[in-house]
Design a protein that fits this description.
With about 575 residues, the chain is of the alpha+beta class. The chain has 21 helices and 23 strands. The N and C termini lie far apart (about 85 Å).
């Protein structure tokens, strides 16, 4: 049993398991003994097989849901752990078992083993013996384990539940184009996704593979939803499908309520312990004394917390009513303070079932037409290489110059070799680029704003990054009427608007073993130094390649996204009151 094609695998599997429908997706995992963890339960990170499909917990008893894993080569252990409760945050294990995955063996999980048990692929003792044998150390360390996973879990979203649609199958003829080849394992341990339609060259509709995650937290303009509305109203600049068809998830972070008694500690209602003893009052550091900084760190007064509650209530009502711009939007409320990073992690684990996500903060707007669909096509066509594409902003508009000033000319020359100029981003010069109307047609509230935009474009035209692009164009002329947009490599993981591979985010960036993101903080603060160290240790190409992070630039001299500064944002009503107060 060493089938030459995935089609053969699927047909044979279905012929011997006639109760099962066609798999929704096929994932190929290629691992080595060196990269596999040990089978010790205490040392192992395990995940639920159905981590992405939290909506079908009511399908627990459905025998038609399954995940089948076929071992093509090598030996491994599938370690299964039953936690005390089915919660991604619960790590207390009640039971543990190991299933040996030998070549040509097949493991099928359904019902309880599928829904309630965590799993991981671990080292087999056979590999260990091989690696410890004389003259076979390198061979044992590098022995490959190749697994083919058939995911037959039916996706049930809230929309499906409402209209009774629960079709998780794919067309039989779609399997005809699936083949097992040397490129099938590009994603290594993360897996190489082969889509339901079996076509790896053409991207499905963007709304089928992309979920938009919008993070929000307490700000002084609450309970008004104006800031979020203004931000989401700009989604139209990223395309109608992005704005209207892609599912959106608004994650409302929790907050800590700060009372005056937290500092004074003399109130009769001061918190007490289990035995009635007075607890030591919580301290608020000086840097959190001002309102903006305190809210940024999730600390709110009782009044601010109440305004935040009213904001979430109004937001839920608008989303349920499907009011513009909140159509196709779900609101997730976190009960406690997580911070941007862990709030995003929660959404990735519980509320996303698409292979890609677009992460947007509540005060980050699109400033002008942005080719999000073309960016998505680029990522999809280069998914083994590109994991993250940030949409540029003011601070990283000239990232090439920032890199040059930090690391010098030799490193910059290598940096330029990593710039990606994909055919998907060869777009109309009438819209993008130095002569495109996307910048010229921008609405400017005052002449001063327009002057600043023109000044920025002029500054950009003389920077090293623009000069490098002009040099490339001279050597590689583009067709008339077209302009080449680029993806600039970055060693900084900007939390600003970006598209990222869901599995890469969830299983690598947020892997607790890697400790690349901390609770209460931002992703960019702790992940960016890791990328830099990776480049220093492995060299720029390999070190950066592990993260595949890039920034979109159309070389017009103007950034795509702006910042409304939620911490200082004033609603129209607040501005009117301020004006009247000044007049008085």
């Amino acid at each position: 049993l060493f089938p030459p094609t995935l089609q053969t695998i699927v047909k044979r599997f279905l012929s011997e398991n006639q109760n099962f429908h066609h798999p929704r997706q096929i994932i190929i995992e290629e691992l080595t003994h060196q990269n596999l963890p040990t089978a010790t339960p205490e040392e192992q990170l395990t995940i639920f097989e159905s981590i992405l499909t939290n909506y079908q917990c009511d399908s627990n008893g459905d025998d038609n849901n399954y995940v089948a894993q076929l071992c093509i080569a090598g030996n491994a252990i599938q370690a299964l752990h039953l936690p005390e409760q089915r919660d991604p945050e619960c790590w207390n294990v009640k039971e543990h078992m190991d299933i040996e995955m030998k070549p040509n063996s097949l493991c099928i999980k359904t019902q309880d083993s599928l829904w309630n048990w965590r799993y991981n692929i671990s080292r087999s003792y056979r590999n260990t013996i091989s690696s410890n044998s004389d003259n076979h150390t390198d061979e044992g360390q590098q022995q490959k384990v190749i697994l083919v996973k058939l995911n037959g879990i039916k996706l049930v979203t809230p929309e499906m539940k409402s209209d009774g649609n629960d079709d998780g199958s794919c067309q039989e003829e779609a399997m005809s184009n699936l083949s097992l080849n040397d490129n099938a394992s590009e994603h290594k341990s993360q897996g190489s996704l082969l889509e339901e339609n079996g076509n790896t060259s053409e991207m499905p509709r963007m709304s089928e593979i992309l979920t938009i995650i919008i993070s929000t937290s307490p700000i002084k303009s609450h309970p008004s939803t104006e800031l979020l509305e203004k931000t989401m109203e700009t989604f139209g600049l990223a395309g109608s499908e992005f704005a209207q068809k892609c599912r959106k998830v608004i994650v409302c972070d929790g907050c800590r309520v700060f009372e005056e008694t937290d500092q004074e500690g003399n109130d009769d209602d001061q918190a007490r312990g289990k035995n009635g003893e007075l607890l030591k009052p919580k301290k608020i550091s000086r840097k959190h004394a001002n309102t903006k900084q305190a809210l940024r760190n999730g600390i709110a007064t009782a009044d601010q917390a109440e305004n935040y509650r009213l904001f979430k209530q109004a937001l839920q009502q608008k989303c349920q009513a499907g009011e513009a711009p909140f159509f196709n939007t779900t609101v997730v409320e976190l009960p406690s303070r997580h911070g941007f990073g862990f709030a995003l992690r929660h959404a990735l684990r519980h509320n996303v079932s698409t292979p890609y996500v677009c992460v947007i903060q509540h005060d980050r707007t699109f400033m002008r037409p942005t080719p999000m669909e073309q960016v998505m096509k680029t990522i999809y066509s280069n998914r083994s290489k590109i994991k993250y594409v940030g949409i540029n902003m003011r601070s990283n508009l000239m990232y090439g110059d920032i890199f040059l000033s930090k690391y010098g000319k030799t490193a910059y020359d290598e940096f330029c070799q990593l710039i990606v100029r994909p055919p998907e981003l060869l777009l109309s010069s009438d819209v993008w680029g130095p002569n495109g109307h996307s910048v010229k047609s921008m609405e400017c509230t005052t002449p001063k704003v327009r002057k600043n935009i023109d000044s920025l474009s002029q500054t950009y035209s003389g920077c090293v990054q623009a000069t490098e692009q002009q040099k490339w164009i001279q050597e590689n002329p583009t067709p008339e009427g077209f302009h080449q947009l680029t993806l600039t490599p970055t060693l900084f993981w900007y939390d600003n608007t970006h598209i990222c591979d869901t599995a890469f985010y969830r299983d690598f960036v947020f892997d607790p073993k890697n400790k690349m993101v901390v609770k209460g903080g931002f992703v960019e603060e702790t992940l960016s130094p890791v990328i830099v160290k990776s480049a220093e240790r492995l060299g720029l190409e390999k070190g950066h390649g592990k993260f595949g992070s890039y920034i979109l630039d159309d070389h017009s001299g103007m950034f795509f996204t702006g910042h409304l500064d939620g911490g200082a944002y004033l609603t129209a009503e607040d501005k009117r009151k301020l004006v009247n107060k000044k007049k008085t």
